[in-house]
Amino acid sequence: MKATKKRRWIIFAAFVIVYLFIMIFPFLWIFITSFKTSGEIFGTGAFRAIPEDPTFGNYVTVLFEKGILKAIANSFIVATTTTIYVIIVATLCAYAISRFRFRGKSILLGIILAVSMFPQMIITGPVYNLFYKLDLLNSYAVVLPYSTITLPMGVWILVTHFNQIPLALEESAEIDGATRFQTLYKIVFPLAAPGVFTTAIITFIAAWNEFLLTITLNTNAAYHTVPVAISFLRTQFSILWGEVAAATAIVTIPTLIIVLIFQKQIISGLTTGGVKE
Question: Does the residue 5 lie in any domain?
Fold first, then answer.
């Protein structure tokens, strides 16, 4: 019996190791490729796990010649601003949906969910025309259309978490003289912290990785974000895969650090709202 149980654990462990290797392998291979020269990437050394002649040239090029640091700064500004904006709007919207009684609440949530399913291609044209008429092209105003991608998801997550907070806590605060905004800010918002963290992190990563809206609205290289800047690492006839790999390794670091720091909050936020107590 013990031998059978031990065998099952060995099979399970082997399965987990293989699965993790499959998941990590693309990132590992990108990191290895970033140290290879163009000749090695396109030659016989393309499949070597260890570069034959490792070089930091790709990193030097993207950092000091291709302006990837400016793109990282742009992405950080846009993603942070989008996150703050979405958290504020999603919190107010989700609190109203969760606490106020009105007809059509389920329909409203369904519409919000439907909006989040719209392909970006559908809204890109109208958004471009609007930005053109308002003279907002080539600016950080791209934050506004970013919310069409992340706001519906944020509302859904926060509605679920607000529903888990007992209404008696808010009633007690009202008896003590707290206003509706004070109740939201001092009681509800802190108790919904896991959902807020989850919404903020997912919003930040989604804004950090957004490509279509930025390349459409910001044609000026000075406002290119990371995904757009990486897409321009090419010549007329080929893609500079070594530089692309180096840039990818560099820009992955901020999101990786954020996920590692707030992984407990992410897991808590995703699980707390999904289970009724």
Answer: no
